Amino acid sequence: MPGRRRSGPTAGFFIMAAALAARLWLLVTLLAPATAVYEDQVGKFDWRQQYVGKLKFASLECAPGLKKMVVATEENVIAALNSRTGAILWRHVDKGTQEGAVDAMLLHGQDALTVSNGGRILRSWETNIGGLNWEMSLDSGSFQMASLVGLQDVVKYVAVLKKTTLTLYYLSNGHQKWGEQLPKSESVQYQMVYSYGTGVLWVLGVVPNSHVNVMTFHVEDGEMVQQVRVSAPWLKSLSGVCGVVGKAVLVCPDSGTRSLFTLALETEEEMKRTPLQALELEFGQGFQPWVLPTQPSPTSASRPQFFLQLAPSHFALLQYRPEGLSLLRSFPQTALVSFGTSGEKTVAAVMTCRTETKGGSVEETLTKSASDESSTQEALICTNQTYTINLYLAETGRRLLDTSITFSLEQNGTRPEQLYIQVFLKKDDSVGYRALVQTDDHLLLFLQQLAGKMLLWSREESLAEVVSLEMVDLPLTGAQAELEGEFGKKADGLLGMFLKRLSSQLILLQAWTAHLWKMFYDARKPRSQIKNEINIDNLARDEFNLQKMVVMVTASGKLFGIESSSGTILWRQYLSNISPDSSFKLMVQRTTAHFPHPPQCILLVKDKKTGRTSLYVFNPIFGKWSQVAPPVLKRPILQALLLPIMDQDYAKALLLIDDEYKVTAFPASRNVLRQLQEMAPSIFFYLVDSERGRLSGFRLRKDLTTELNWELTIPPEVQRIVMVKGKRTSEHVHSQGRVMGDRSVLYKSLNPNLLAVVTESTDLHHERTFIGIYLIDGVTGRIIHSSVQKKARGPVHLVHSENWVVYQYWNTKARRNEFTVLELYEGTEQYNATAFSSLDRPQLPQVLQQSYIFPSSISAMEATITERGITSRHLLIGLPSGAILSLPKALLDPRRPEIPTEQSREENLIPYSPDVQIHAERFINYNQTISRMRGIYTAPSGLESTCLVVAYGLDIYQTRVYPSKQFDVLKDDYDYVLISSVLFGLVFATMITKRLAQVKLLNRAWR
Amino acid sequence: MAAPWLLLLLLAAPGAVQGSGCRAGARGAAAEGCGPTGLLLEHSFETDDNVHFRKRGSLTWNVQDGTITLTQRQLTEDERGRLRDVAALNGLYRVRVPRKPGAVEGLVAAGHVSSFVPACSLVESHLSDRLTLHVDVAGNVVGLSVVTEPGGCRGHEVEDVDLELFNTTVQLQPPLTAPGPETAAFIERLEMEQAQKAKNPQEQKSFFAKYWMYIVPIVLFLMMSGAPDAGGQGGGGGGGGGGSGR
């Protein structure tokens, strides 16, 4: 990191003076703006938030007193969280594909064992620092279960059960102790392994609808001691249904005969049936009941008590004794249950919905549930979103006093999905506990009964899967809005206007003095105490519009409003009825610029399977659903267009085209419909059917029907369409052309309707595979340019902006990543300089292209964008390493000459070199790497020099970039003291010298 | 500069593809054999916005040498009048060709590719249009583009005589081959530069050797004035020297 004082520009000038005649182009590379930040700027303009994803496994039962929990998630992350703050202590991100999926996690003392990649890899982690103790690659075979095995009070091994084998590994080093082939593995499905420190190990397999195979192995040498066949013609599967309780007693529920079957593995050879009626219980209709046992330590027997889930919201705590099963307590209207153990005490945690009426309500709900069968058939519906967790002693089923934790879920329609508890004994020997709750909107809550406060922390893990985001300007402050409103209103007399002006100026003055006072007040306090708390009430646009609201949509259907300068989540909304496989499109219908109308965003959600589309309208600043009723969409929507037509309340008209090519307008006000009718002949849109390789263009008719105008077919048997990208509508291009070395102008071809279509060949042989690039006018369907990149393969990343297209692909012949840039120029004369029309462009643009080698693959790519488009463009390239490279577009310029001439030097063109290098100083996120980056979003700010960047993946990172440096801002370390003292000094000196000169003149006159 | 090169490239590219046209065509599902195939060109211009395609002519696509020719008939009196009407109503003039070069006459099941121009621009261009048939690497028809020359509607009066015969240019456009990184040329250039340097030892002088007469006084001056920035400037100069020595 260079020193604080920047010597670059002076040095650059020095070279320029000396070596002007030599190579000007070298200077360009030398002076290329370094985008790295200074050490003291770290975290000033940027922030990063790290996530782990939705929980798959969690273990709170670390050694007591340790403030951490170990989790494994659906995002293939293994991490430890600080249980006091929720901060990530360490995190390991495995591959994002199925290869990294964690199949099982077991915790033993300080070590966490994980099985991943379908049972291929066994790892042991040191949970304090997250170091890898050892890693073993296992033989292939579908993974069933892993279990810790103890011998005489010491846990020494881990047993891994696969479809055909049972293998024991040492916990200390991962070496294999023994491995045994399981007999008849083609017919028997081995699913469970159990031991309790007696030196034997049971493996349970099932032949569906026939029998259970129970095999006993010696832990020491792997010798099979016994093999028993137990008839169970009603049993289909063991895992997720049966459980082992007490001293190796298998308990299986059967909904067909409405009974529970038990089998003591050590002694019995036949299942013992206990009808449910004997326990005064009944299974829910169509529900697969299952058993939840608990085994506090692998060296001792499981507890004889276990939970049985009878219906989606009905649990029962049962106890096994050799003489039979007995019911300890029934828990109707229950959301989740869990066991926890501390020392000798095992407790059961039960989460129920808290009913509003006090006293007697329990009986009420009980009778209600008994009378109304359907209420127990469905999952628990909790109307007030408030849940209570209570502890019960497992041995007796007695409720422990003062152990209830009540919490409310903020979002409607969310439901708790997982419950983990950690139990500890307080000083007075009473039981205390902490609970980790995960809801179906991927929110993690950590609760503890602590001096009136229930919630310790929460994590919004759905932000690990951001799918779409938009940045919206913040609203004006009251004073600014007042001033703005003055211009908006109709003139009401000279005097009235004058008074209004005076009053608004007064308000401004007042706001300014308040601001000054606050600054003065803050300046006296130590820096650490100043907290700029941002909340929804004091949201206001800053003077350069650098602070914005980031609206994020996540795959789980949760929406977030995040303040961009700090990363604070200001609002969240949950769409509960979103299927997991949906696509989202977020659009800004009304920006913040139309005070007093609130800004308005539209979220279009399409279920990929059913094609059902729904529309949500909301205020992006406050996260409130809009009062405006969105249109009811009966048919799947193929295309949504946001037109520049505005309603009288400045909402842009949204056109939705359904699969019958009918058009729905939103808002469907008379004003909009009239404007649509007027504009209809000039409203064109396109549809892409990538399955059939069909692109088609339509035009709107006056009666809001559509007509087919053009049709292209890219044969799907040869190549399939993988990407269609237009330009960003908000983009401004400042310069219409480029001045060349001979002082003539090369005009850019700026077709706003241009689409870049990328195809990949269906033939994936490395000699014949290719990538096709089509540039198509979206209005006329005219193919402006088509080219193939031979011996190339995807995934293709493409940026389409101004008059250029940059795409990246994998070259199968040279086995490297390559960039190709296409630029479109009209030539040295413009066809029609005043207006652009796709219908009136007889000449095809000139297409220039060049390719480069890039040393890395990329995970995301986007171009910077600024307010007026004066600032030079950079490409922001997300690398798999998690860094974001800011690459000047000048390096990807097809006009880079192979042999530099006088004219190309004049133009500052860098001579062609086939490789584009990655310089670490061009990383905009220094060491703040972003795991599994999926996208980069850029937005202009109020400053021309500054572009706001949000990169998202598993982590979210926000920063600002200055592609042409901060030409419109004084530097951070600008020496105000020096410049003002010089100024004052000069003024002072002028005054003194003036006085001196006067004296001198006077003296001379007297002489 | 680069622009004229590119024009050359554009002209040369179809020629380059022509050689492999037959092979490529034969591989594709569309072309049958290597002989000339016929494509029916149809057009539609109706005053009531309906689409009703009628025969305009037929394209003969010689897959062997990658050329395409068009034979078409004159517009009838009736059609001419209708075209004028459509133009007045700001209607569209559509054209289409079948995707598979099957029978010239009759329906083709594989569907069509179509395009359009505003009818008025066709009228005002005196029926001079340019048709481009885009094909993919395997010789399948991808799209059809039509533009009139000159384009646009400016409201010029057109005489009937000018609306008799189409003045059509037909073009076949296979996809161009996008260039790869040009490493060979780059290495050649580097070698050339090196050779030049070896020839011309004058150029080989280092930065300091060439400009010491400027640097020494400035450094001296800075040292005398005792400016704190002197170190930084010296370093910058050195760095520049290294770069320029290449």
Account of the protein in words:
The complex is a heterodimer of chains A (1007) and B (246). By secondary structure, chain A is mainly β. In chain A, 12% of the residues lie in helices and 42% in strands. Chain A has a domain at 975-1006. Chain A has nine helices and 63 strands. In chain A, strands 49, 50, 54, 55, 56 and 57 form a six-stranded antiparallel β-sheet that branches. A four-stranded antiparallel β-sheet of chain A has the order 1-63-62-61, with no helix packed on it. The longest helix of chain A is centred in the middle third of the chain and has 31 residues, at 494-524. Chain A starts with 7 loop residues before the first helix and ends with a helix. Residues 1-34 and 357-377 of chain A have low confidence and may be disordered. Chain B has 246 residues and is of the alpha+beta class. Chain B has a domain at 36-173. Chain B has helices spanning 2-27, 77-88, 119-124, 183-199, 201-204, 207-225, 230-244, and strands at residues 36-44, 54-62, 67-72, 92-98, 112-118, 128-135, 141-148, 167-173, 176-177. Residues 1-32 and 229-246 of chain B have low confidence and may be disordered. Classes of the chains: A mainly beta (1007), B alpha+beta (246). Chains A and B meet through helix 1, strand 47, strand 52, strand 53 and strand 56 of A and helix 1, strand 4, strand 5, strand 6 and strand 7 of B. Strand 53 (783-790) of chain A pairs parallel with strand 9 (176-177) of chain B, so a sheet runs across the interface. Chain A: It is found in: Endoplasmic reticulum membrane.
Topology:
The complex is a heterodimer of chains A (1007) and B (246).
Chain A: H1 8-19, H2 24-31, E1 47-49, E2 55-59, E3 68-73, E4 77-82, E5 88-93, E6 102-108, E7 111-116, E8 121-126, E9 131-137, E10 143-151, E11 154-162, E12 165-170, E13 176-181, E14 189-194, E15 200-207, E16 211-218, E17 224-231, E18 243-245, E19 249-254, E20 259-264, E21 272-275, E22 290-292, E23 305-311, E24 314-321, E25 324-332, E26 334-342, E27 345-353, H3 361-371, H4 373-377, E28 386-393, E29 405-408, E30 416-425, E31 431-439, E32 443-450, E33 453-460, E34 466-473, H5 478-488, H6 494-524, E35 548-554, E36 558-563, E37 569-574, E38 582-590, E39 600-607, E40 613-619, E41 624-625, E42 637-646, E43 652-658, E44 663-666, H7 670-679, E45 684-689, E46 694-700, E47 706-713, E48 719-725, E49 737-739, E50 745-748, E51 754-761, E52 770-777, E53 783-790, E54 792-801, E55 804-811, E56 816-827, E57 846-854, E58 860-863, E59 874-878, E60 884-888, H8 902-906, E61 935-940, E62 947-952, E63 956-961, H9 976-1006
Antiparallel strand pairs in A: 1-63, 2-3, 3-4, 4-5, 6-7, 7-8, 8-9, 10-11, 11-12, 12-13, 14-15, 15-16, 16-17, 18-19, 19-20, 20-21, 22-23, 23-24, 24-25, 26-27, 27-28, 28-29, 30-31, 31-32, 32-33, 34-35, 35-36, 36-37, 38-39, 39-40, 40-41, 42-43, 43-44, 45-46, 46-47, 48-51, 49-50, 50-56, 51-52, 52-53, ...
Helix pairs in contact in A: 1-2, 5-6
Chain B: H1 2-27, E1 36-44, E2 54-62, E3 67-72, H2 77-88, E4 92-98, E5 112-118, H3 119-124, E6 128-135, E7 141-148, E8 167-173, E9 176-177, H4 183-199, H5 201-204, H6 207-225, H7 230-244
Parallel strand pairs in B: 6-8
Antiparallel strand pairs in B: 1-2, 1-4, 2-3, 4-5, 6-7
Helix pairs in contact in B: 6-7
